[in-house]
Amino acid sequence: MKLELINFPKIDDDRGNLTFIEGGKHIPFNIQRLYWIYDVPGGHTRGGHAYRELEEVIIALSGSFDVVVDNGTETVKYSLNRSYYGLYIPKMAWRQLENFSTNSLCLILASLPYSEEDYILEYNEFKSLLGKPVDNDRGLFTHPFSEI
Ligand code: TYD
What global pTM score does this model have? Predict the structure, then answer.
């Protein structure tokens, strides 16, 4: 499955809107873990890695932030700012979260428990695992998104 914006059900109500997610129905994998990122100081980024096997859905429960995703061939940026959208990210996609608004709340639904071994932290390793040419001009820890 490819990168995709999922539109969750939204129950409009004068008393306040409601959105829900049902496992096995709205998420294209079995949810094994939830975590959330909050209190991000202005200008900071999170992520900046890929997963070997993990799939995820990222939701801006509150506020806004950008998700930049690179599949090794192209880079796209999604600005998430509605709690009824989730961005599905397949395995083997380099992703970074940035431009967090004040008091934003980022919820991540993950297909696997936390595993340090599943992380690919070096961009050149990510590219070579995809069978793509490695850009040797990039320093080991130079971030690919600095160019977009
Ligand atoms: P990490 O995924 O590296 O965050 P980021 O990519 O935004 O820097 O996680 C930061 C730390 O939190 C790291 O030490 C691992 C730990 N962690 C867990 O213990 N469990 C989890 O489910 C997650 C997501 C992170």
Answer: 0.92
Q: Compute the distance between CA of residue 144 and CA of residue 45 in angstroms, rounded to an integer.
A: 13
Closest C-alpha to 109, from 77, 82, 86 = 86
Alpha helices in the chain (DSSP H): 123-129
Cβ atoms within 10 Å of 77's Cβ, excluding its own: 14
Task: Identify the sign of the CA torsion 106, 59, 2, 144.
Answer: negative
Q: Number of folded domains in the chain?
A: 1
Domain range spanning residue 93? 4-147
Q: Which residues belong to the active site?
A: 49
- From the CA of 24, how far away is ligand 1's center (Å)? 25
Does ligand 1 come within 6 angstroms of the Cβ of 35? yes
Per-residue pLDDT reduced to its tens digit, 61-116: 999 999 999 999 899 999 999 999 999 999 999 999 999 999 999 999 999 999 99
- State the Cα–Cα distance between residues 101 and 60, nearest whole angstrom: 10
